[in-house]
Amino acid sequence: MDSQVTHTNMSDASMPNPSTSGSLQAIAERFIDRLFAxxxxxxxxxxxxxxxxxxxxxxxxKFANPKYTVGLERASPLYVFLATNGFAYAxxxxxxxAAGFLLANRAVRYVGLLVVLLFVGTFSIxxxxxxxxxxxxxxxxxxxxxxxxxxxxxGLAAAAIAMVAHDVRRHREAGGVGTHSLVAALxxxxx
Length: 191
Description:
The protein has a domain at 42-172. The chain starts with 17 loop residues before the first helix and ends with a helix. The radius of gyration is 26 Å and the shape is globular. The chain is 74% helix and 0% strand. The protein has eight helices and no strands. Helix 2 (24-64) crosses helix 3 (66-75) and helix 5 (108-128) runs antiparallel to helix 7. The chain is an all-alpha fold.
């Protein structure tokens, strides 16, 4: 049959040759190098989009149930005066707008700084409200569910910082407007 391919009619070029393709170790090393190249290419957009999804979710959650955010604010002496549904809704709007900018890949370094502040603000509740942070009766180092929820903001703030650093480097390498030029332009307009 013509449609059947047999070993005899295959060219030598299509057959793997151990001496030309290298050892199993060399093949594994090339695979790992390619895998690292893919990771290097996708990490920044993946991080930016992941943070956008998280911010959308957190913002939507605040709109659906502001009581949880209000309760966290009440537990912290830093934020007790902000413990209102209105403030929870304002945070939700900030998170969703920031997510929109990240999805559109616009003003990433500036939005990223805002996101860092949002996560640092939430994490500060972890530090200032030990009664809700640590599980009882064990106490430190056992975290409550709320403590675990708040602790994740350290990692999210670090991810936002990495995103900002990447965007700053990308703009610098592309010869884009530097931060100092933007600040000068803003203050020049205010005069």
